[in-house]
Input
Amino acid sequence: MTAPLHILVVEDDAKIADMLTNYLHMHGYATTVCGDGLDAVQQVRALAPALVLLDLMLPGQDGLAACQQIRTFSSVPLIMVTARVDEIDRLLGLDTGADDYICKPFSPREVVARIKALLRRSGGALTPRPARLHADEASMTIFWDQRPVPLTPVEFRLLALLMSRPGMVFSRAKLLDHMHQDLRDVSDRVIDSHIKNLRRKLETAGAVGQGVASVYGVGYRFEVD
Output
């Protein structure tokens, strides 16, 4: 089964992000949402999405700076979103690296139409290499090179959390809270066992350069080569 195309939605307004992701899911796309310009760059590195929908005004750093950083390592199709019509003229005059622009307020139907058009124009030429790890929250599946990695629900929740913030160290207590939603009382050493299984399964799947690193005395972090 072919994995759905993955869209990274970079939007700090939760209502707009929810509207977009719901509509994209209806049209068969997988999504990841982040609301910070600095985090957006890390997410592109970690997830290698098929397309990025990037708001201009963001905390951390604005969309313009994020786009310019992304273009130093990726040619992923990218649509810049702005709340001002007159801002588009300024952006068009700059070498931002964006492939298209859209102005708020917009209809989700228009956004999907722009996404489909840009993906058709790119014809795969702008899409980053597919041999990357990504998480599909809807199906609770981790994909490597468009193939599902066989994980238990607990393993999925652990890896998806670690992947959501590449390089960030998560304590065993934080991972335990996320691992069991019924708040059962289990030893934090159970995490070590699950991480061992995750590493083995990623290695078996051939996920080279993607791994979970131990941070002595603290916990674990997800690393991308």
